[in-house]
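Hi P.,

Sorry for the delay on this. The queue was packed all week, but I finally got your sequence through. Input first:
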Amino acid sequence: MIDVLHPYDRPADAADLLGGAIHTANRTLREAITADPALAGMGTTLVALTWSGTTAVVANVGWGLLAQEGAERLMDEGRMEH
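Then the structure:
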């Protein structure tokens, strides 16, 4: 593991850390749209996975077909529960 990331390797915090990063990205996009209204209506897709130990957190924002297909494959293989 990269030493700088070691303090963040806490399974209990994985969802909160990923959720916080997503909220920060959303706020940044909203601020950009406020500053430049020509950006209004733009779309974005986010597919993210983080893990710590045996805990994995998956996030999907937007169209997300890639995330859906990947999750279905993991469930079919018995490596992820719904």
